[in-house]
Amino acid sequence: MSQRSVRPVQGALLLALSALLFACMGVVIREASATVNNENIVFFRNLVGVAFFLPLLLVKGLRPFKTQRLKSHLMRTTYGLAAMYCFFYAIAHLPLADAMVFTYSAPVFTPIIAYFWLKEPLTKRMLGLSLLGLVGVILVAKPSDALFSSLSLVGLAASLLAATAFVSIREMSDTEPAYRMVFYFALFSSLISAVPLTWAWQPLSSTQLTLLCSAGLLAALAQIVMSRAYSLAPPGLIGPVAYLAIVFAGIFSLLRWGETPDSASLIGAALIFTASLLAVLWRKH
């Protein structure tokens, strides 16, 4: 069994790239969700992830995907898929700004979970930078009073589940390459998310299919890059970099829908950048 790597700069750069890819996916899903229900969006996001690996399967066969840790992959899928459904539920029942706070608050919990699960170091600096990034997210999202409603428990559960999924990626990284983790996540998620389609299937136009396939492709790429990032460095160390997704999302919202950020959003974006940079640069050598 190989040791887990600790290469914070490379890990942070890859996590920033995954944040960009996830933001692109968010734009595509926002376009698709105007006419496609959540059940179909989740299913196609996962199914395209499986199709992404078909060329490798055809060329190399099953050998690259053989694993001794099927249970770990299934648990990681359980955390990740449950988080996905909770996020969609939060988006459907809470103001979008409130749901965004929960979507991007997972990095606050990752160092704590990694400390108890993997015994990885937990410092006041890690927690401080995670909270600084979260303050930035709140300034950008400007949540309403609904943030404190009982429905918010679903959003909180989503954050905790997503954080647990990130740490499970780190836990498996000593033996499992990034592509294998993403393959099993996509495979198990496709099988599970196919069940709701028995009552929620809707016919799809070519435009809708194109959007869903694009979202699935971006998700697969983002997952591979994110899994590689968390295999290179502890989630507690580079986790705040994931907050950059909300900055990228803000830029895309400005370009695509003309949603102009106000001064609070710009201050929040600056805090997110600061937390992300300090998380990597201000560390013990």
Tally of domains: 1
Q: Residue ranges: pLDDT <50 for 5 or more in a row?
A: none
- Structural class per helix/strand content? mainly alpha
On the 0-100 scale, what is the average pLDDT? 82
Task: Count all strands and give the number.
Answer: 0
Indicate the overall shape: globular
Distance between the termini: 25 Å
Q: What order do the SSEs take from the amino end to the carboxyl end, as H and E?
A: HHHHHHHHHHHHHH
Strand portion: under 5%
- Rg over CA atoms, rounded to whole Å, is 18 Å
Q: What fraction, in percent, of the residue positions are helical? A: over 70%
How many individual helices?
14
How is the biggest beta sheet arranged? none
Describe this structure in a few short sentences.
With 285 residues, this protein is an all-alpha fold.
